[in-house]
Amino acid sequence: MKTMKQIKLMAALLTLLFVVACGDDNGGTEVTDPVAPVISTPTDGSAIVVTEANLTSNLEITWAAADFGAEVAVNYAVQLDAEGGDFSSPVVLESSVTGTSITLTNTVLNSAIISDLGMEGNAEALIDIRVVASSQGFEDLVSGVVGMSVTTFLPDQTTAAVVTLSTSTIAVTAESLSDKLTVTWTPAVVGAGDTIIYSVQLALAGEGVDAAKTVGLTGGVEYTLSHEALNLYLDQEFGQDPEAEVAVELFITATSGTETITSEAAAVAVTTMASQYYGDVMYMTGSFTDPGWEPWNNAVVLKPMDVDGTTVYEGFAYFNAAHEVKFTDQAGWDGNNYAFASEGVLTTEGTDNIPVAAGHYRVVVDPTNLTYSFTEVQWGIIGTATPGSWDASTAMTYNEENNSWEITEDLINGALKFRANDGWDINLGPRDSFTKRGALVHTDGAIDFGVGSDGNYTVRISLDTSVSPYVWNFEVIRNQ
Fold first, then answer.
1. Phi first, then psi: what are they for 237, rounded to 5°?
2. Which of 30, 133, 183, 271 could make a disulfide contact with 66, Cβ separation 3.0–4.6 Å?
3. At the topology level of CATH, where does 282-376 sit?
4. Residue in 301, 292, 291 with CA at minimum distance from that of residue 464
5. pTM of this prediction?
């Protein structure tokens, strides 16, 4: 028979065993009311604008401690994600924190947003911050999310080219037409692009790059412009007088992807001479102009050109229907007027109009021999860059809306130029090789330009009648 003292001892032992058994369930202490950390700063909706001046300023993130329901060691991690992210792959701003705050510079925060989250520089970034508390043997306790706006800062990563010219003065003469103005420049830095295309821009001094003409494109850091080409640009596209000094500026615009940066100007003084097209012109007027039959309004301007010692006049015109025309040597009716005598023959005595059918024509007038011709033209591209090489032209399509001939075609690295009617009687090439945009002139078959790499291109030639006399312009645009 057990005594009362024995019974009490057994009860105490049973109680102790129960406490020990309940004190270590599955390797951890039972948590009845865990409390997650609560972020106190920054507050939800806070905003920071990071600038170059405040990169070293500090952002403090503080929180109320987590409570695991037991006296245990706690570590904290501060995590970052884009607004609305699920923190499945968070950026860890700091881990193994034993206190309840961290301090980080704007530089660290800015870098985490741009480099780690992949968000844009110099733009507003909406982010979420949370704090995760952990302790061995317990499930993590996660704070609520605090959202904030950070306007990031990305230093300027572009560097413009620095331009150098081979001379500061040029006098264009008949003997110097083939001489070259050499333009060189330091490589530009344009964003993160791998390929940079440089555009050589020519402008009258003081007018800036917005008023400039593109005279060449290249992937290198040097470009040459002949005195003849320079003279033609100043004469035809800028309307400068011959035998006069003109102050001009050259710019280099570097483009990579959608980013562009332009150099400072480099100056040169050019004394011009009369170009091959400088001087008198002729006018074609008729029922096709609006208003009709007014040589001083919307007439087609014909340029002088030498053919075996005789000055003839050439122009290009598109007629969307049959019309009648006449030619005059003045922008009016007071000079010599050239009317229809018979097919291909003119008279200065008659009044009959010259009939012309619908189509795109090269117009040639010989006032000395009183003849005219309308040659219908179909422009095409030819050269080793094209499908037909030098053997056959690849036809272009006329675009009436912008008075241009266009083609989109796969081209290969090689030469390219333009000719009409799959023959060499009418052909155009650039004033300088290795350009992919600019003005065209009649060529002798030796002048072409290079397509630098295989790809799909849109090639266009357009007749600019906004200048007098007209100018054929071209551009070669790589599509892929």
1. -100, -20
2. 133
3. Immunoglobulin-like (2.60.40)
4. 301
5. 0.45
